[in-house]
């Protein structure tokens, strides 16, 4: 007997175009959600990730992909959105200059807005508290506080129709485990982009925190990163 | 003896251009803050309020006024940002169609981003739980949950350098009291704009919820609203 057609539940999936959010989207799809992928053009210097996000959304069967523009450069304060140089000397402890003030708060707020319009009570975000580069808004306690606030912020929350759930399937995984999970779910990592400071040909620098964490993850997973790097000897950078 | 020069504490003040946020900014100035006024171009049909915001920021001595664009129309779902008609038959109980999904969450998130860059731990927002048109994100419990989340979201919060405070000086005031307070502090109400659906000449409609609450407030305060209304007999609308 055929199973009856299933009306999939909608979920908003934040999608940067990096390997974490790609894997997160693949997990949401595997869990049976109809995925509405959301990316932001926020003045990031690595805007190439938006093209990666569109490719990833298509390849993983997102129902829709929207890119919302917000000019976070208006406030400055980060190496990702201003003229502060991206550090390349290695991953330091503490909060790095690539931290964008309140970025995940802003992104989750906009995901919440879309979720409310879609009558969705599920938001997926690929944050990660292990290899997380020290960003405060990637921690479980932040996510929990956001969900609590969100349920007081919305019409559907107040009317008791839905209870927003923020899914963070990667939060306790190492970069190695994220890559293994993504590979298992068929994520095409050649479509993703992680580098904070790609060169004019779109090649990853191999030296910024994001490249280093990615390369280390692939090495530990025993897999080859399909991306092209500007630096040849990438194994030295991890 | 002269008092020593005082280095004013910076505060981010959300400023829509309406009378509530104008009064809120006047209160922040009176409390001795150096005010950074923040407005949003979010695709609202009453964009005339942005001109009002600029006039108000200037007249009340804000240190700076920034307008950040975010296209909330990308999500739809509100009479203020889409083709749903603005209701004019009177103020209904419940959450009206002029509610913009997650609007205050998005606005406060962006205020938080600017506050972090300014090393400010104070944000002012003119929300009001009394004559608040039934929006869920104007309630004290929402504001408290946002502040809690914000302190987990930011570099300065995590490092224990600051503890964000969200000031809501109007939250327990009626519209009448807000108007009286604003008048007392010298707010020039002729510079403000409240109407959701002004006509081509910039005149307020006198019939939407926002006009009705405003007119009722002025009447109760025993003051004359200096704005021009498209409908002559405004006293019938309140």
Topology readout:
The structure is a homodimer of 238-residue chains.
Chain A: E1 9-14, H1 19-30, E2 33-41, H2 48-59, E3 64-69, H3 103-118, E4 122-124, H4 140-153, H5 155-158, E5 165-167, H6 175-184, H7 209-221
Parallel strand pairs in A: 1-2, 1-4, 2-3, 4-5
Characterise this structure.
The structure is a homodimer of 238-residue chains. Chain A is of the alpha/beta class. The first copy, chain A, has a single domain (9-237), classed as HUPs (Rossmann fold), CATH 3.40.50. Chain A has helices at 19-30, 48-59, 103-118, 140-153, 155-158, 175-184, 209-221, and strands spanning 9-14, 33-41, 64-69, 122-124, 165-167. Chain A has a five-stranded parallel β-sheet, with helices on both faces. The longest helix of chain A has 16 residues, at 103-118. The first copy, chain A, is globular. Chain A starts with 8 loop residues before the first strand and ends in a 17-residue tail after the last helix. In chain A, 54% of the residues are buried. Mean pLDDT of chain A is 84; it is low at 1-5.
CATH class of chain A: Alpha Beta
Strand order of the largest sheet of chain A: 3-2-1-4-5
> What fraction of the residues of chain A are assigned to beta strands by DSSP?
5-15%
Largest sheet of chain A: 5 strands, parallel
CATH architecture of chain A: 3-Layer(aba) Sandwich
Number of helices of chain A: 7
Which protein chains are joined by the largest interface, and how many residues does each one contribute? A-B, 44 and 44 residues
Report the oligomer. Answer: homodimer
DSSP summary, beta strand count of chain A: 5
How do the SSEs of chain A run, as a string of H and E?
EHEHEHEHHEHH
**Share of helical residues of chain A:** 25-40%
Q: Taking all residues together, what is the mean pLDDT of chain A? A: 84
Specify the overall morphology of chain A: globular
Instruction: Report how far the terminal alpha carbons of chain A are from each other.
Output: 52 Å
Radius of gyration of chain A: 18 Å
Q: Quickly give the structural class of chain A.
A: alpha/beta
Low-confidence stretches of chain A: 1-5
CATH superfamily of chain A: HUPs
